[in-house]
Amino acid sequence: MKRVTVVEHPVVARDLTILRNKNTVPEQFRSALNRIAIILAYSSLKTLPLKEVLVHTPIQKTKGFELDSEIVVVSILRAGLGLVDAVLGFIPEAKIGHLGMYRDEETHQPVDYYSKIPKNIENDFVLLVDPMLATGGSAADSISFLKKKGAQNIRFMCLISAPEGIKRVQDEHPDVPIITAAIDERLNEDAYIVPGLGDAGDRIFGTL
Fold it and tell me: Residue 157 is inside which H or E element, if any?
């Protein structure tokens, strides 16, 4: 699939197994999620622009680098919160935005209920995060919202994807790269990813 990066790593494979296991308790789930999120964040930030600077070492002057863009991490609430800290581990100065959405259990469509996004994001590197890319509704709507706010450089980072969700995002936003740890088989009749891991938000926060 074009513009889709599946991050393969032995730690990711092991921790995905922990996340999928229905008997994994919330604290174990959060730990495994955080480890995968660090690897996903590393991959998602590989294309950050740099500018050359002069640095004084204890020995002499030499060439160094600084980031040449502001970084904005936007979490799709509430499950996206579980991925934010991993990004901040690399970019502690990043600005953080939140988009609140929930899934209508009958229509399976996203319903917006909250938004708080940093201002003037036109030239920023925007990383949208959510553990699950199922129907693609929340991701596509969130990307549309960010573009209306002026964002031009957006990436979407998720834990597990369904082919249906990837297709929708690519159909509506072919310019937005997707970084994921796994592409699963399909969606079931309730629009949950198969085999998936259940409701990521409930498993992160222990609200099953």
Answer: strand 153-161
Residue 208: Cβ-neighbour burial (10 angstroms; 0-12, 13-18, 19+): exposed
What average pLDDT score do residues 22-26 get? 94
Helix segments in the chain, DSSP class H: 10-20, 26-44, 81-90, 137-148, 163-172, 200-205
As a whole number, the mean pLDDT across the chain is 93
Q: What angle do CA 65, 69, 75 make, to 5 degrees?
A: 125
**200-203, long-range: CB < 8 A, 24+ apart:** 200/79, 200/82, 200/131, 200/132, 200/159, 201/78, 201/79, 201/131, 203/19, 203/24, 203/26, 203/29
Compute the residue count for the chain: 208
pLDDT at residue 119 greater than cutoff 90: yes
As annotated, the active-site residues are 103, 107, 199, 202
Q: Tell me how far apart the alpha carbons of residues 83 and 201 are, in angstroms, rounded to a whole number.
A: 11
Going by C-alpha positions, the residue among 70, 74, 94, 91 that lies closest to residue 83 is: 74
DSSP 169: H
C-alpha to C-alpha distances, 146 to 66, 121, 207, nearest whole angstrom: 25, 9, 29
Phi, psi of 18 (to 5 degrees): -60, -45
Domains and CATH numbers, the chain: 4-205 (3.40.50.2020)
